[in-house]
Amino acid sequence: MKKAIIFDMDGTLFQTNLILEPALSATFDVLRKKSLWLGETPIEKYREIMGVPLPVVWETLCPMHALETREESNALFHVKLIEEIRSRRGALYPHAEQTLASLAENYDLFIASNGQTEYLQAIVETYQLQRYIKGTYSIQSISSGHKSDLVKKVVKENAIERGTVVGDRSSDIQAAHDNQLLSVGVRFDFAQETELQKADIVIDDLKELLDLKLG
Question: Would you call 208 exposed, middle or buried from its count of C-beta atoms within 10 A (0-12, 13-18, 19+)?
Fold first, then answer.
């Protein structure tokens, strides 16, 4: 029986919080120079919605801006994030690499993320996650923009019969349940207790996955 574990990326494997502020600040510096933004960079607002697709991020952060401006901001933010990643200013969560190495001996490992393709590839390449991960799936690969459909794509394309979704937000938990998979919530930076309550299992450290019967 083919067993797999599907990981979210931001706030689950990768400490996005380490690169979030400088990338977002650089983006809003440009907006301020163009007189398209007044006041402080909305870091806390972004933290609240972390994990949603980037178009939704800009609809939330800049509701009064034209679509073209949002798209330009999103593109710039994306570039800044990748610069931070390539410069190794981010980091994987503690024990991520060791945990992935151990799990890969018994499971097929995948990433399913709301992040854009180039962004995810930058993380995978910088931290050499291809050693453990069989496939990385971006929300850009499906039309609906729903994490449940993205996980469904992973399951179907890889003939997964039993598995687990590991993530920090409600969309990850819902994606697991919608696809009849076990849901493991991680209590990390962006996680919210009300959302984690819906997970089958909640962990505080990735190495706890090694002690669980997954899928």
Answer: middle
pLDDT tens across 199-210, in order?
A: 999 999 999 999
d(CA 112, CA 166): 10
Taking residues 65-93, report their average pLDDT.
94
Q: How far is 36 from 56, CA to CA, in rounded Å? A: 19
What would the pLDDT profile of 135-179 be if each residue is shown by its tens digit? 999 999 999 989 999 999 999 999 999 999 999 999 999 999 999
**Which residues are CB-neighbours of 175 under 8 A, at least 6 positions away?**
112, 146, 147, 148, 150, 151, 165, 167, 181
Coil, helix or strand at residue 135? strand
**Pairing assessment for the beta strands 182-186 and 108-113 based on DSSP bridges:** unpaired
SS3 at position 4: strand
